[in-house]
Amino acid sequence: MSKSITSQYFKFNSFFGNRLFMVQKFIQQIKMQSSKLRFKLLKQNHMNIIDDKASSYEYLLQNKMVNQKDESFFQKIIQFIQNAYILKPVNNILIQIIFIFYLFQNSILFLLWNIILLIFLILRIIYIPLQLGLFYFEINIPQIIIFNLIPDVCYGAQIIIGFNKAIYKKGILIQNRSVIIKNYIKKRFFRDFIILLVMLIEYFNKSNWLQILVIFLYQDISEILAEFDEKYHLREKTKGVFDLTKLVFFILYIGHICGCLWNFIAMKERESGMADDQLWIGTYKENWFDRYIDSMYWAVVTMCTLGYGDITPKTKYEKIFVMGVVLISTFVFAFSMNLIGDTIKEFYRKEKEFQDYIQKINIYMKKRNINEDNQVRIKKYLKYLNIQKNDYFNSEILLEQLEDNLKEDVKYDIFGNLLKKQSILRDSFDVYKLSQKMEEKVLPFNQYIFTEGDQSEYLYFLLKGSFTIYKKQKQILFDSISVNKYIQFFFFFLIKKVKRKNIWINIIFQWIIIQLFSKDKFNCSFSINIQRRFPISNKG
């Protein structure tokens, strides 16, 4: 009996399993008839076979147009943390920590890492010439840790990060590990590895002159500063101060290297048995810091003015070295003057362009015999527009240069957050689609936005500046509305039909989304009809 029941049970399971398999197979075959689904199943090797130069598999992945690759171990951990209810308060921090070992993005941790790396690389490139220049100063454990160990560890970690740091190719973010690794090995790995190897050799051979290669870390410092400039627009904000600061540091660092080598030559010749009165250091103090200041003084003065004559070369090796320094300083001085000139020229470039434009306007107005009072008004108004143009960048100029998909994402970033703040728009419309209809325009001062009696078709967003409402016939000032005084959007409406005998009236709005910035109007190409009813008092 039990065998019969067991046999029937297995037969039922077998029958049900076969039917379930056939149903699943049928569903899969139906799905495969969809061209959209088949496109989503494309893999990297398929794209390689197609070899479409106008397409990018990374772009398709980024925009979720094809199925994502199998999640890696780290991606699964990140997904678990994001979904874990207990870890919700700290999931962002944990994800950032995991990305240290996975893939660096444009994150706060990456910014902090760059700052730490920048500090210790600067300490390292300053310390190496001092050590090689035979400035005999006492070195203790804390100094070894700060000037040697920590910079070496940081640079080793930077190499590991180089294998995991996302890159951009043709403006597209690449997160494919194999592409990242190949790119890093091709461009930076061998250079970085040689520098790290030289840094480690120091622990076994203190006088190894290969350490001078560490000065190539200056390139890494320049790249980090360039990233800061790109992210925070330091050049525009500091108006040339950032460039001049880098230039001063560069000149002082060249002077630092030359001064250390100047001291090195003197110390080596003293060790070879030459008397102090035959060397420049013979009349100076033996304290290493005092000698360093004397060396730096000589280097900077020689580079900038060819020297005052108080510290002069006495031996043939010192004279040969001074000739080399003078030649180098010639190029450094020329480079410095050129950079300073470019910085000053850039500072006054926009002002000069505007003055040239005003000059052409003056010539035109005189030829046309325009009234002098109007000429003054025109020039003052053009000056105002020039100031407004410098203070505000029109997003349309940026959007015109972007390809369609990126343009849509940028428009959503610009306008989407604004639309989300308004519940009537957020709850009634697709914010993403709505943001694609918005445009941006700059309106000049004292221009009418809406005239009484006209039919309004616009909804305005006031982000900056203010506007004034007047009663047209009586020139009565109703109110002056600014950003912080009222809600961020407003509209004018037209009562199309009013029934005085009825205590209810119908007000129909027909409006188009617009953005306003400092009396600047943004319009779009669609309209929406909303009909509402408002109670009013019946005055007969």
Automatic annotation (TrEMBL):
Keywords (A to Z) from UniProt: Ion transport, Membrane, Transmembrane, Transmembrane helix, Transport
Membrane topology of the entry: Multi-pass membrane protein
GO BP, one annotated term: sodium ion transmembrane transport
Coiled coil feature spans: none
Domain of life: Eukaryota
Example of a GO cellular component annotation carried by this entry: HCN channel complex
Localization in the cell: Membrane
Spans through the membrane: 85-104, 111-132, 144-168, 189-205, 247-267, 320-340
Chief place of localization: membrane
Keyword Aminoacyl-tRNA synthetase: no
Molecular function in Gene Ontology: voltage-gated potassium channel activity
Cyclic nucleotide-binding domain mapped to chain residues: 433-472
Keyword Transmembrane helix: yes
PANTHER family, A to Z: I[[H]] CHANNEL, ISOFORM E
Full protein name: Cyclic nucleotide-binding domain-containing protein
Source organism (scientific name): Ichthyophthirius multifiliis (White spot disease agent)
Organism phylogeny: Eukaryota, Sar, Alveolata, Ciliophora, Intramacronucleata
